[in-house]
């Protein structure tokens, strides 16, 4: 109480008025429940008609492989990475460095292709792919056209790789939600690999 009074005095100097927040007290809830009791002896009607029952198969609930990919371009060598997550929750990181002229979009395509090739090696048939590159995801989904001549071969190769799957879903994931692949690609770019 002493600190609140002190704060009020300091705030009056600037014509600011302190208003305390009101909260629901436990006694108010108890009083409400006492005024409006719930009768426990109400019988439960257990007669259900079979007319309104529908069965829905939830195929979305089945565990599938997931892949997160990302490419990093910085002052050191650019790198690409992908994280493969098995249905039982095991993580398989895949990373590589790029030693040729590139753009940011090329690194994103390279990362996606690297991840897909690794998943194909695991003989996976159903896959969910997540990436923070709108260009790569939306071009693969066919929502955007591939106009850049440098990206057309990457896009065609990615399309060929997707034919190895019975079911593959591509989902755009904002950068903040693609933390695994982003961290992997960033770490790969900072580490020098010696042969």
Automatic annotation (TrEMBL):
Residues 69-186 form the RNase H type-1 domain. This is Uncharacterized protein LOC116209109. InterPro entries: RNaseH-like_sf, RNaseH_domain, RNaseH_sf. SUPFAM superfamilies: Ribonuclease H-like (SSF53098). GO terms for molecular function: nucleic acid binding; RNA-DNA hybrid ribonuclease activity. Pfam families: RVT_3 (PF13456). It comes from Punica granatum (Pomegranate). It comes from the Eukaryota.
